[in-house]
């Protein structure tokens, strides 16, 4: 049976279980979008910016573990995808991007909107190829799907608009032999024995667990019990490691808890499980270490590792557990848990609100949101201070999910990811924790919510600044500059866009406002004026940061900006 290249692509995507494609239509995509229009079981999701489409596809892939798809027309249409695709690839979620191309005879002539996507997207994909001949369509589309699923990352299929319309005689039905299948990778017996010997000989062990523990929760708890080990989690591991975990002592890193940092720095041996935690300064560099990761190239690149185990975390722990000797000395674990209780208490003491205050603490907002949100809520959070407060105050319980740009660190991800999450899980509550800068960057996606009638709930941390950037400047000794945001009333703006909008400036109004906001049946935005000068303190402060902050304070006084220091003290010390 003869099929067009567009029909082959769409039929292959549907065979892979794809039900929606995110993007903005354009003439070079017409062949593909017209096939989607005529097919039952797949739909085109019209976003206002292709970058949002890539983020939305990434959220869908994160929640389902299956293939999600986005698309962009030739030139600027598909180059808008790149930021979202970088995020998807670094988060290791399976996404296929269709990058339409100019007419094939014009490639290389400097034609209108000409770019070279097969070069542009090379660094943020595991597969990126130009489909230049119709006879390539079957094998290349299948290869792109299998790369995205098999490598857990991004595949990019570059398709010239004219080629998408051409026919392929006798095109076979799609065949995806790896779809739904999974290999189990395990270390060699000798390596397992070496790891067990190292861990058994150590007086105190700490576990650092990441997103690689997604399917290894039971095995993780068994290992912590046998080793008497506190469990520190990386941010991407929070939703998998934190729930129902009596050994959890919180995060480490810039956003983390003192208890997590102490548990890492005071151990004799470190067991790293499924994490590529990037901050070497928050990891011990002088202890014996065992690392388990499915990707051998990641072992030992953050801290010195003595035994590297290449394998799935769950399968590796199942094989390792019988070889571990139970530790009877629990002092290391008990001390870490005591530290965690104290850290948790200190953080909770900051999450308070006084009625009548002119603005409120973001910690208080996030604590109330955590208490009032659904037990199975899906949270997305913008990079910056919303991620800090989400990491510290949202509680994961095994049903809730947390999505952010935790590896790529992009602004403007939360609203776009919430769109993909809500389409994927229409019956669940989806809450986007947005910074005022992040929301403004892709503000047009409010119109996507309206058009698609998605009941996403948007919380805006409105501090009229790029607050995390300001904090970085102060820590480095710089006066804040270029970070102030002249914001509108976001609630009124949301109302104008057809959403339900609520604005809160008084902490006393917040509990009832949150209740009405979360129970609203359609899309809603809660604009909360929070304190600009709130400090999100890391678990440990380096000498350079002390020096930098002191230099900032001196500069502030000498430049007539002593009021900034007074406000910092009122917000963070005089409480």
Structure description:
This protein has about 575 residues and is α/β, with parallel strands linked by helices. About 40% of the residues lie in helices and about 15% in strands. α11 links the parallel β10 and β11. α3 (about 50-65) packs parallel to α5 (about 80-90), α12 packs antiparallel against α14 and α15 packs across α22. The longest helix has 20 residues, at about 330-350. The chain is globular.
Keywords:
575 residues, alpha/beta, 6-stranded parallel sheet
Layout of secondary structure:
Layout: E1 3-4, H1 5-15, E2 20-23, H2 30-38, E3 43-46, H3 50-64, E4 68-72, H4 76-79, H5 82-91, E5 95-101, H6 117-120, E6 127-130, H7 137-151, E7 154-160, H8 161-165, E8 167-168, H9 189-201, E9 205-209, H10 217-227, E10 231-233, H11 238-241, E11 248-251, H12 258-265, E12 269-273, E13 288-293, E14 307-310, H13 313-320, H14 331-350, H15 362-372, E15 378-381, H16 385-393, E16 401-404, H17 414-424, E17 430-435, H18 436-441, H19 445-452, E18 457-462, H20 467-476, H21 490-496, E19 500-504, H22 510-519, E20 524-529, H23 543-558, H24 562-572
Parallel strand pairs: 2-3, 2-4, 4-5, 5-7, 6-7, 9-10, 9-12, 10-11, 12-13, 13-14, 15-16, 15-17, 17-18, 18-20, 19-20
Antiparallel strand pairs: 1-8
């Amino acid at each position: 049976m003869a099929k067009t290249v567009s029909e082959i692509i769409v039929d292959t995507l549907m065979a892979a279980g794809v039900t929606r494609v995110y993007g903005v239509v354009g003439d070079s995509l017409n062949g593909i979008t017209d096939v989607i229009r005529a097919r039952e079981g797949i739909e085109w999701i019209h976003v206002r910016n292709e970058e949002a489409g890539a983020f939305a596809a990434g959220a869908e892939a994160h929640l389902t573990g299956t293939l999600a798809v986005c698309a962009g027309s030739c030139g600027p249409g598909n180059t808008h995808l790149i930021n979202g695709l970088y995020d998807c690839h670094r988060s290791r979620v399976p996404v296929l991007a269709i990058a339409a191309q100019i007419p094939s005879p014009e490639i290389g002539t400097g034609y209108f909107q000409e770019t070279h996507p097969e070069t542009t997207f090379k660094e943020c994909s595991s597969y990126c190829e130009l489909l230049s001949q119709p006879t390539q369509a079957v094998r290349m589309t299948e290869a792109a799907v299998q790369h995205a699923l098999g490598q857990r990352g991004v595949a990019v299929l570059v398709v010239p608009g004219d080629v998408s319309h051409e026919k392929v005689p006798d095109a076979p039905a799609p065949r995806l032999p790896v779809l739904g299948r999974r290999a189990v990778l395990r270390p060699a017996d000798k390596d397992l024995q070496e790891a067990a010997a190292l861990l058994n000989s150590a007086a105190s062990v700490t576990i650092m667990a990441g997103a690689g523990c997604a399917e290894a929760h039971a095995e993780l708890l068994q290992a912590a019990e046998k080793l008497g080990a506190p469990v520190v989690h990386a941010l991407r591991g929070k939703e998998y490691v934190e729930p129902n975990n009596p050994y959890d002592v919180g995060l480490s890193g810039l956003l983390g808890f003192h208890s997590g940092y102490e548990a890492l720095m005071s151990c004799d041996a470190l067991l790293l499980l499924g994490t590529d935690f990037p901050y070497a300064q928050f990891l011990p560099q002088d202890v014996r270490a065992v690392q388990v990761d499915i990707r051998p190239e990641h072992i030992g690149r953050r801290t010195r590792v003595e035994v590297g185990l290449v394998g799935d975390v769950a399968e590796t722990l199942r094989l390792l557990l019988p070889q571990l000797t139970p530790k009877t000395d629990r002092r290391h674990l008990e001390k870490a848990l005591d530290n965690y209780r104290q850290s948790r208490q200190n953080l909770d003491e900051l999450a308070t609100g006084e009625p009548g205050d002119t603005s409120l603490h973001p910690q208080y907002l996030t604590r109330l949101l955590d208490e009032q949100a659904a037990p199975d809520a899906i949270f997305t959070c913008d990079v910056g201070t919303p991620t800090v407060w989400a990491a510290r105050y949202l509680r994961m319980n095994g049903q809730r999910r947390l999505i952010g740009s935790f590896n790529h660190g992009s602004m403007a991800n939360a609203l776009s990811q919430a769109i993909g999450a809500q389409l994927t899980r229409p019956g669940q509550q989806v809450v986007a924790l947005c910074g005022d800068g992040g929301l403004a960057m892709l503000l047009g996606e409010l119109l996507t919510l309206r058009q698609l009638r998605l009941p996403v709930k948007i919380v805006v941390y409105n501090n009229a600044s790029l607050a995390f950037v300001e904090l970085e400047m102060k820590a480095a000794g710089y006066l804040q500059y270029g970070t102030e945001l002249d914001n509108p009333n976001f609630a009124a703006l949301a109302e104008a866009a057809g959403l339900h909008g609520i604005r809160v400036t008084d902490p006393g109004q917040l509990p009832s406002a949150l209740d009405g906001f979360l129970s609203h049946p359609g899309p809603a935005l809660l604009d909360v004026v929070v304190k600009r000068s709130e400090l999100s303190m890391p678990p440990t402060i380096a000498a350079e940061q002390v020096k930098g902050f002191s230099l900032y304070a001196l500069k502030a006084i000498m430049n007539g900006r002593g009021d900034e220091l007074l406000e910092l003290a009122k917000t963070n010390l005089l409480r």
